[in-house]
Amino acid sequence: MSQPTHPLQIRDYRLVWLARFTSVAATTAMVVIVAAQTYQLARGEYGYSTREAAFLIGTLGLAQFIPFLLLTPVAGLVADRLDRRFVGAASCLLDLTIALSLVAANSLGAISLPLLFTMAALHGAARVFIGPAISAIVPNVVPAELLPKAVATGSIAWQSASVIGPAAAGFLLAGNDAWPYVMSAILLTAAITALLNIRPLPPVPKPSGETPLRQMAEGAKFVWRERFLQGCITLDLFAVLLGGATAMLPAFAYDVLKVGDEGLGLLRAAPALGAALVALFLAFFPLSRNVGVKMLWAVVVFGAATVVFGLSTSFPLSLAMLALLGASDQVSVFIRGTLIQLNTPDAMRGRVSSISGLAISASNELGEMQSGLAAAFFGAVGAVVFGGIGAIVVTAAWAVLYPELRRAKTFAPQYRPSPARTEGPPP
User: Fold this and answer.
1) Structural domain contains residue 118
2) 1 in any annotated domain
3) CB 353 within 8 A of CB 79
4) Per-residue pLDDT for 347 more than 70?
5) Is the distance from CB of 153 to CB of 17 less than 8 angstroms?
6) How far apart (Å, rounded) are the C-alpha atoms in residues 60 and 280?
7) Which of 227, 250, 317, 390 is close enough to 39 for a disulfide, judged by CB 3.0 to 4.6 Å?
8) Does the pLDDT at position 426 exceed 50?
9) What is the pLDDT of residues 163-192, one digit of tens each?
């Protein structure tokens, strides 16, 4: 039998791809609609000002991040010790319960700010397990030589779902408040079905006899010891934390650009559309040279596009800048994701993926909080412009603080064998 030349030729990878697509479409749709309903309730029923409502959607991000922070060490260990298919399916089942609860609340007219914040926190708890489980499955079903293509192809699932989910949710919200959550429930059911149909994975490594707390700490120590991984993960953490324009999209849609629910869906989908197009290109023509420098420049473009978006009063220009923002971020995500996977031993992938996921969540959810705080003082426009400039400054600093990033010419493992490492090099 001929060897596959693309990950989509592998049955189990196709199921992983489907699970990623449907789960991301469902969850991004819910995040957008929960934020939109929070903003609308704050402005309408509660009579908050624009700045107060913007601050409130910032605190919504904090509500999602707190459970993510508390459960990240547990999620990484679970993904390394239990069957990753079942961990992902169980997490999607929790999100499915959240979606059905919001269908009921909207249908009965019982939606409220406390309920939305509670559902956001539960969603954060579910998402912390989904990411490490699904990400850690990929190297188990794809040969190492196809992993860069698998990362790029997986990004197509992620980014195209992030286009379709929010855009569809915005249009559905204009018709009925419950419909976006019905869509999410259907998609999550499909994700669970796909995960449960993946063939059994290789047995997980037997526990070393160390206590669970010690095993969780080992994942953090591994990242701390590997400066290259540390630089990759923290670059995303601080650059995106400051450059989180998407957190303020409800304020831009309703009060700056005045484009309503449908416009909000398009604004939320634009970054993912740009990212999906880049991911499609990278799936067939993956980057292979000077990857570190390209990753750094991609984050600079991300920051510059954020600044222009913040200053724009034109809906088409705003959409274009959000698409550019997403495209540049996808280049960074592709390079960083591939480097992290190939520089991590399989026995540690769940824990390292959970730490990477924590950094991504911190950059997104705490970025929303930071944007909300900045918006309370400078307004939504000032908050976005400030964040974009901050992302550029962080990238320049990381290029100096972590020269290993600039020196990464290819995706070859950057690790140096160390007597302290007991898990062995990546396979």
Assistant:
1) yes
2) no
3) yes
4) no
5) yes
6) 32
7) 250
8) no
9) 788 878 888 888 889 999 999 999 999 999
- Rounded Cα–Cα distance for residues 334 and 356 (Å): 13
Residue 420 lies in a domain: no
- Provide the residue range defining the domain that includes 280: 7-198+213-407
310: DSSP letter: H
Which amino acid type is present at position 146? L
Count the alpha carbons within 13 Å of 241 in the hemisphere toward its beta carbon.
Answer: 19
Nearest to 306 by CA among 240, 366, 233: 240
For the entire predicted model, the pTM comes to: 0.68
Is the distance from CB of 16 to CB of 137 less than 8 angstroms? yes
What is residue 422's predicted lDDT score, i.e. its pLDDT?
A: 39
Residue 272 has pLDDT above 90, yes or no: no
Give every CB contact of residue 81 below 8 A, 6+ residues apart in sequence: 204, 207, 350
Q: Which two tokens stand for residue 272?
A: 């993912």
Q: Which DSSP state fits 4?
A: P
- As a whole number of angstroms, the distance between CA 204 and CA 209 comes to 14
Token readout for 81 is 């010790």
354 vs 420: CA distance, rounded Å: 22
Token output for 404: 């290993």
Q: How confident is the model at residue 423 (pLDDT cuts 50, 70, 90)?
A: very low
Element (H, E) at 94: helix 84-107
Question: Is residue 82 scored above 70 in pLDDT?
Answer: yes
Q: Mean per-residue pLDDT for 190-208? A: 79
3-state DSSP assignment of residue 200: coil
Nearest-angstrom CA–CA distance, 182 and 114 = 21
User: Domain count of the chain?
Assistant: 1
Contact 231, 212 (CB under 8 A): no
CATH for 397: 1.20.1250.20
Q: Give the integer Cα–Cα distance in Å for 70 and 328.
A: 30
Six-digit token pair at 102?
A: 């919001």
> pLDDT band for position 132 (50/70/90)?
confident
Residues 6+ apart with CB under 8 A from 129: 71, 75, 78, 79, 87, 88, 90, 91
Rounded CA separation 205/207 (Å): 6
* pLDDT(391) > 50: yes
Q: Which of 350, 355, 358, 427 is nearest to 134 (CA)?
A: 350
